[in-house]
What does this fold into?
Amino acid sequence: MELQLHTINQDSPTGQIALSDEIFGRDFNEPLIHQVVTAYMAGARSGTKAQKTRAQVRGGGAKPWRQKGTGRARAGTSRSPIWRGGGRAFAASPRNYEQKINRKMYRGAVRSILSQLVREERLVAIDDFVVEQPKTKLVLQALSRLNLDHVLIVCSELSENLFLAARNIPCVGMVEVGAIDPAILVAYDKVIVTRQALSDLEELLK
It folds into this structure.
């Protein structure tokens, strides 16, 4: 499989780059992608929410008032769930939202996503993405030449200039090959991948 290779320094493409069919020629496996993306996003949840039950709330040991004769409803504790300051009836406790996904499934989902991006012409290969200064306008000009706006930039290694220049641009994401994940791949309209990043991806997903 071949992919058109672009450059950010001129408007015309610079040729073709060969892609591995093993990585970029897979069928679209929607159930697998859905399961892996859902598991990844679930694993990112902190799960630290905690509330107290009536047994854990401080106080409430004495009966607020006598059982009969006051004209008020019966009450045995001031820490009842229906009282202000009382415990929760079904209190939330810390939990782990992590779902088990093995390595074979994870890599298979990433291969399937990349293959679909190629088929839909949403994967843009460039020779390199270098900005001389940490200026946002330089990144915007480069993206304008490629007619891209809602885009993820995948590099083998993010330079400081590129990071500083692109971090405040809405709808533009950046990630190194080693930190790539299924959720970020499906979050953008287009994905820019450098020549070296494509090589690293093929090595990583073998």
About this structure: Residues 103-119 form the longest helix (17 residues). The helical segments are 21-24, 30-43, 103-119, 136-145, 160-166, 182-185, 195-204. The chain is about 30% helix and 15% strand. The CA atoms of residues 125 and 198 lie 8 Å apart.
